[in-house]
Amino acid sequence: MPELDDDFDPMPEAPEAPSDDLCCGSGCEPCVWDLYQEQLTEYRAKLAAWQAREAARVKSA
């Protein structure tokens, strides 16, 4: 059985912004841009956590 790599911790990937033609401009709830902003906020939190883990990993190495 292959050994799992406990150190595998890839950097999170940023969400892809929707193209301008995906927004119909009619004020939908939620708009594709609202959803993107939520994803971006979540990404930034995950990125900050990953950066903290990465800094701790480098410091302990």
TrEMBL record:
Oxidoreductase-like domain sequence ranges: 11-51
Biased composition (Acidic residues): 1-10
Pfam entry (one): Oxidored-like
Superkingdom of origin organism: Bacteria
Positions of region (Disordered): 1-22
UniProt protein name: Oxidoreductase
